[in-house]
Amino acid sequence: MFEDIPVDVSPMYEGERIRSANMFVELAGPKSIGAELVQVREEVENGKVEVIGPNLSEMKEGEIYPFGILIEIKGEKLEKELEGVIERRTHELCNYIKGFMHLNQRDQIWCRVSKEANDAGFELEHLGKSLSILFKEEFPIIEEISVTLYTDKKEVEAFLENTSKQYEERDARARELSDEDVDVFYGCVMCQSFAPTHTCIVTPDRTALCGAINWFDCRAAAKMDPDGPIFEIDKGEVLDEIRGEYANVNTVMADKSQGTVDRVYLHSVFGYPHTSCGCFEAVAFYIPELDGVGIVDRDFKGETPLGIPFSAMAGQCSGGKQVEGFAGLSLEYMRSPKFLQADGGYERIIWLPKAIKDSLIDFIPEDLADKIPTEEDANSIKEIRKFLRENNHPIMERLKEAKAKTAEES
Ligand code: SF4
Ligand code: ZN
Q1: d(Cα 260, Cα 277) in Å, to the nearest integer?
Q2: Fewer Cβ neighbours under 10 Å: the N or C end of the chain?
Q3: How far apart are CA 232 and CA 276, in angstroms?
Q4: From 92, 138, 186, 188, mutation site for ligand 1 pocket: most ligand atoms within 8 A of C-beta
Q5: For the segment 327-351, what is each residue's pLDDT rounded down to a tens digit?
Q6: What secondary structure letter does DSSP report for 9?
């Protein structure tokens, strides 16, 4: 089936990493721009693969290029609601291709092509062709498919404008619904290939930590493929409304993690926080000195107040682990009124990167916005403490009370 493709294509290559020494070129990623998008269409030119911009053979070894992947699909049973979930599989399916590496999702994608693949004559058309075949195999409801790959900078920029509109539309829809409004949540185990004890619990308020899958996406996916990686969880008994603890969610967690994790709080970083695979858009981390919580996202390149960058922190809390004081989360979850509600929500947030603060400003309580420092205001614990004090952050009250209590007790 893959006879015209000069490299092997098989799930066996999924774990392949392409280090910079072995890389021919990098596509998208933190030093460039890029995105992926699946769109359900009325009309699709079946089998068409188009490359807009330089192809691999026209690229220079060691360089980084912008990159967009547009996948258009048609099928009688395909609904727009399925776009997000089908799109999320791009990651896994791209990685079936030997010599092609794909990380992350949406406009966070980061790809590499190996020198061996380039030497074998691998071109972007081959990527498009492989994806067409793989997507149809994975989702028999896709009847027709076409793939467009962008590498021209202007074209990728225009593509990004469109993708962000589409992502926002999907996310905004889920924002209208709350956990109380529904009887079922969903679980997703798509990331168990590399994080075997990880299950994402997706609720209306808690978009999956990869940021790519919300409650509506899951509903559509579970309906399409009830035995697939996304499944329904009957909400059942509510054990703790504020922390977000549900009896059936605990049972599912225990079952899917082979007993490693048997309790989870959906809305807290303390006690039993949600497990983290590795795809999270951001991490919430406890800062013990100030009894507050900081947030750092994947795009933030500096050091966090804990003295380590995002990458090191991600290493400590990913792989399906439940690490108290840390929780991987999506930026969309930070738009929910239940965002870490058990910990105090934004009243407990004492540091976050400027870029995400700006992007979430409409969701941060107005009276708090100026009280939460970013890397432009403070970085060390000492600087943060000073900023919080000068700006009257509610955490200072909390610290004072705690101090008074300790004094009383001693
Ligand atoms: Fe599924 Fe969670 Fe992985 Fe996203 S991060 S694909 S929701 S398991
Ligand atoms: Zn993941």
Answers
A1: 14
A2: C
A3: 20
A4: 188
A5: 999 999 999 999 999 999 999 999 9
A6: B
CA distance linking residue 333 with residue 385, whole number of Å:
26
| Ligand nearest to the Cα of 213, by number | 1
Residue 406 belongs to what H/E stretch?
Answer: helix 395-409
Six-digit token string for 120: 């074998």
Distance CA 27, CA 102 (A): 9
pLDDT at 27 over 80: yes
DSSP string, 332-388: GGGGSTTTTGGGTGGGGEEE--HHHHHHTGGGS-HHHHTTS--TTT--SHHHHHHHH
ipTM above 0.90, yes or no: yes
What are the residues facing 201 on neighbouring strands?
187
Q: Which atom of ligand 1 is nearest to the CA of 189?
A: 8
Domains and CATH numbers, the chain: 11-173 (3.30.1650.10), 281-317+344-410 (3.40.1470.10)
Handedness of CA 398, 286, 29, 193 (dihedral sign): negative
Neighbouring C-beta atoms of residue 190, cutoff 10 Å: 24
Q: Is 195 in the pocket of ligand 1 (CB under 6 A)?
A: no
> Cα–Cα distance between 76 and 71 in angstroms, integer?
17
Task: State the CB neighbour count (10 A cutoff) for residue 54.
Answer: 15
Q: What token pair was written down for 307? A: 């003295």
Sign of CA dihedral 133, 134, 136, 140: positive
